[in-house]
Amino acid sequence: MRHKDDNKSEAIFQATIQLLNEIGFSDISMSKIAKRANVSPSTIYVYFENKEDMLKKLYLNVKEKMSLKMLHGINETTPIQAGFELIMSNLKDFVLDNKDYFLFLEQFTNSPLIARMCLDESIGFFRTLHEFVQKGQQQQLLKQVDANLLLMYCYYPVTQMAKEHFKGAVVFNQEKLKEITQMSWDAIQA
Protein backbone atom coordinates (compact mmCIF):
# COMPACT_ATOMS: atom_id res chain seq x y z
CA MET A 1 0.00 0.00 0.00
CA ARG A 2 1.35 3.43 -0.94
CA HIS A 3 1.51 6.21 1.60
CA LYS A 4 -0.04 9.58 0.94
CA ASP A 5 2.21 12.58 0.44
CA ASP A 6 0.62 15.99 1.14
CA ASN A 7 2.86 17.60 -1.50
CA LYS A 8 1.55 15.22 -4.18
CA SER A 9 -2.03 15.82 -3.10
CA GLU A 10 -1.51 19.58 -3.35
CA ALA A 11 0.21 19.20 -6.74
CA ILE A 12 -2.80 17.22 -7.98
CA PHE A 13 -5.18 19.90 -6.67
CA GLN A 14 -3.18 22.71 -8.28
CA ALA A 15 -2.91 20.87 -11.59
CA THR A 16 -6.64 20.21 -11.58
CA ILE A 17 -7.49 23.86 -10.91
CA GLN A 18 -5.12 25.07 -13.63
CA LEU A 19 -6.49 22.62 -16.19
CA LEU A 20 -10.11 23.30 -15.32
CA ASN A 21 -9.52 27.01 -15.75
CA GLU A 22 -7.76 26.41 -19.07
CA ILE A 23 -9.87 23.71 -20.73
CA GLY A 24 -13.01 23.30 -18.62
CA PHE A 25 -14.79 20.30 -17.13
CA SER A 26 -15.70 18.58 -20.36
CA ASP A 27 -12.11 18.15 -21.59
CA ILE A 28 -10.38 17.32 -18.32
CA SER A 29 -9.16 13.79 -17.65
CA MET A 30 -7.21 12.06 -14.92
CA SER A 31 -4.33 11.45 -17.34
CA LYS A 32 -4.11 15.17 -18.17
CA ILE A 33 -4.17 16.02 -14.47
CA ALA A 34 -1.47 13.45 -13.72
CA LYS A 35 0.74 14.79 -16.51
CA ARG A 36 0.36 18.39 -15.27
CA ALA A 37 1.02 17.33 -11.66
CA ASN A 38 4.05 15.23 -12.67
CA VAL A 39 2.62 12.08 -11.12
CA SER A 40 1.49 8.81 -12.64
CA PRO A 41 -2.25 8.43 -13.27
CA SER A 42 -2.34 5.57 -10.75
CA THR A 43 -0.96 7.93 -8.08
CA ILE A 44 -4.12 10.03 -8.28
CA TYR A 45 -6.16 7.00 -7.24
CA VAL A 46 -4.12 6.71 -4.05
CA TYR A 47 -5.67 10.03 -3.01
CA PHE A 48 -9.07 9.95 -4.71
CA GLU A 49 -11.61 7.26 -5.60
CA ASN A 50 -12.38 8.83 -8.97
CA LYS A 51 -12.63 12.17 -10.77
CA GLU A 52 -15.88 13.10 -9.05
CA ASP A 53 -14.37 12.40 -5.61
CA MET A 54 -11.34 14.53 -6.50
CA LEU A 55 -13.48 17.44 -7.73
CA LYS A 56 -15.66 17.29 -4.62
CA LYS A 57 -12.65 17.32 -2.29
CA LEU A 58 -11.04 20.11 -4.27
CA TYR A 59 -14.22 22.20 -4.15
CA LEU A 60 -14.56 21.69 -0.39
CA ASN A 61 -10.87 22.49 0.12
CA VAL A 62 -11.15 25.81 -1.75
CA LYS A 63 -14.47 26.74 -0.10
CA GLU A 64 -12.94 26.13 3.32
CA LYS A 65 -9.94 28.34 2.49
CA MET A 66 -12.28 31.07 1.28
CA SER A 67 -14.49 30.90 4.37
CA LEU A 68 -11.49 31.07 6.71
CA LYS A 69 -10.19 34.13 4.87
CA MET A 70 -13.59 35.84 4.85
CA LEU A 71 -14.01 35.36 8.59
CA HIS A 72 -10.45 36.35 9.51
CA GLY A 73 -10.57 38.97 12.26
CA ILE A 74 -14.27 38.46 13.03
CA ASN A 75 -15.23 37.47 16.55
CA GLU A 76 -18.18 37.82 18.93
CA THR A 77 -17.22 41.40 19.84
CA THR A 78 -16.89 42.69 16.27
CA PRO A 79 -19.50 45.40 15.59
CA ILE A 80 -21.90 44.39 12.82
CA GLN A 81 -21.11 47.11 10.27
CA ALA A 82 -17.35 46.85 10.85
CA GLY A 83 -17.65 43.07 10.51
CA PHE A 84 -19.40 43.30 7.16
CA GLU A 85 -16.78 45.73 5.92
CA LEU A 86 -14.05 43.32 7.04
CA ILE A 87 -15.80 40.33 5.45
CA MET A 88 -16.01 42.14 2.12
CA SER A 89 -12.39 43.29 2.36
CA ASN A 90 -11.25 39.78 3.24
CA LEU A 91 -13.23 38.35 0.32
CA LYS A 92 -11.67 40.89 -2.05
CA ASP A 93 -8.20 39.92 -0.83
CA PHE A 94 -8.93 36.20 -1.20
CA VAL A 95 -10.28 36.59 -4.72
CA LEU A 96 -7.51 38.87 -5.98
CA ASP A 97 -4.77 36.82 -4.31
CA ASN A 98 -6.20 33.50 -5.50
CA LYS A 99 -7.46 34.10 -9.02
CA ASP A 100 -7.21 30.41 -9.97
CA TYR A 101 -9.28 29.38 -6.93
CA PHE A 102 -11.86 32.05 -7.70
CA LEU A 103 -12.18 31.05 -11.35
CA PHE A 104 -12.48 27.40 -10.33
CA LEU A 105 -15.26 28.21 -7.84
CA GLU A 106 -17.10 30.29 -10.42
CA GLN A 107 -16.89 27.51 -12.99
CA PHE A 108 -17.82 24.80 -10.50
CA THR A 109 -20.71 26.77 -9.01
CA ASN A 110 -22.21 27.29 -12.45
CA SER A 111 -21.86 23.63 -13.36
CA PRO A 112 -24.51 20.92 -13.01
CA LEU A 113 -21.85 18.95 -11.11
CA ILE A 114 -22.47 20.90 -7.93
CA ALA A 115 -26.12 19.83 -7.76
CA ARG A 116 -25.23 16.23 -8.54
CA MET A 117 -22.59 16.08 -5.82
CA CYS A 118 -24.89 17.48 -3.11
CA LEU A 119 -22.20 19.60 -1.54
CA ASP A 120 -24.09 20.54 1.59
CA GLU A 121 -20.87 19.89 3.48
CA SER A 122 -19.58 23.34 2.50
CA ILE A 123 -22.44 25.03 4.37
CA GLY A 124 -20.69 24.35 7.68
CA PHE A 125 -17.74 26.49 6.62
CA PHE A 126 -20.03 29.54 6.60
CA ARG A 127 -21.99 28.83 9.81
CA THR A 128 -20.14 31.62 11.65
CA LEU A 129 -21.05 34.03 8.86
CA HIS A 130 -24.73 33.13 9.20
CA GLU A 131 -24.51 33.52 12.98
CA PHE A 132 -23.00 36.96 12.46
CA VAL A 133 -25.95 37.93 10.25
CA GLN A 134 -28.42 36.60 12.82
CA LYS A 135 -26.69 38.66 15.50
CA GLY A 136 -27.12 41.76 13.33
CA GLN A 137 -30.78 40.92 12.85
CA GLN A 138 -31.27 40.41 16.59
CA GLN A 139 -29.72 43.83 17.19
CA GLN A 140 -32.13 45.17 14.53
CA LEU A 141 -29.23 46.51 12.48
CA LEU A 142 -29.98 44.28 9.49
CA LYS A 143 -33.15 43.69 7.51
CA GLN A 144 -35.32 40.85 8.75
CA VAL A 145 -35.05 38.72 5.61
CA ASP A 146 -33.37 35.43 4.77
CA ALA A 147 -29.71 35.59 5.84
CA ASN A 148 -28.63 34.19 2.48
CA LEU A 149 -30.21 37.16 0.74
CA LEU A 150 -28.28 39.58 2.93
CA LEU A 151 -25.05 37.72 2.32
CA MET A 152 -25.60 37.86 -1.45
CA TYR A 153 -25.47 41.64 -1.21
CA CYS A 154 -22.01 41.33 0.28
CA TYR A 155 -20.62 38.47 -1.79
CA TYR A 156 -21.78 39.23 -5.32
CA PRO A 157 -20.67 42.87 -5.54
CA VAL A 158 -17.14 41.78 -4.63
CA THR A 159 -17.08 38.86 -7.04
CA GLN A 160 -18.59 40.87 -9.88
CA MET A 161 -16.03 43.64 -9.37
CA ALA A 162 -13.28 41.00 -9.32
CA LYS A 163 -14.50 39.60 -12.65
CA GLU A 164 -14.34 43.09 -14.17
CA HIS A 165 -10.88 43.54 -12.65
CA PHE A 166 -9.63 40.28 -14.17
CA LYS A 167 -11.02 41.31 -17.58
CA GLY A 168 -9.12 44.60 -17.30
CA ALA A 169 -12.29 46.72 -17.31
CA VAL A 170 -11.67 48.25 -13.84
CA VAL A 171 -9.00 48.32 -11.17
CA PHE A 172 -10.38 46.76 -7.99
CA ASN A 173 -8.70 49.01 -5.46
CA GLN A 174 -9.57 50.23 -1.96
CA GLU A 175 -11.66 53.09 -3.36
CA LYS A 176 -13.85 50.69 -5.37
CA LEU A 177 -14.10 48.37 -2.37
CA LYS A 178 -15.20 51.26 -0.17
CA GLU A 179 -17.88 52.26 -2.71
CA ILE A 180 -19.38 48.80 -3.11
CA THR A 181 -19.15 48.13 0.63
CA GLN A 182 -21.15 51.27 1.37
CA MET A 183 -23.71 50.40 -1.29
CA SER A 184 -24.04 46.88 0.11
CA TRP A 185 -24.37 48.16 3.67
CA ASP A 186 -27.06 50.62 2.55
CA ALA A 187 -28.94 47.70 0.97
CA ILE A 188 -28.87 45.34 3.97
CA GLN A 189 -29.18 47.62 6.98
CA ALA A 190 -32.52 47.86 8.72
Automatic annotation (TrEMBL):
Residue ranges flagged as DNA-binding region: 29-48
Key word Protein transport present: no
Keywords: DNA-binding
Lineage, highest ranks first: Bacteria, Bacillati, Bacillota, Bacilli, Bacillales
HTH tetR-type domain segment(s): 6-66
Protein name in the entry: TetR/AcrR family transcriptional regulator
PANTHER family: ACREF/ENVCD OPERON REPRESSOR-RELATED (PTHR43479), HTH TETR-TYPE DOMAIN-CONTAINING PROTEIN (PTHR43479:SF20)
InterPro entries xrefs: Homeodomain-like_sf, HTH-type_Tx_Regulator, HTH_TetR, TetR-like_HI_0893_C
Signal peptide interval: none
Annotated Gene3D superfamilies: Tetracycline Repressor, domain 2 (1.10.357.10)
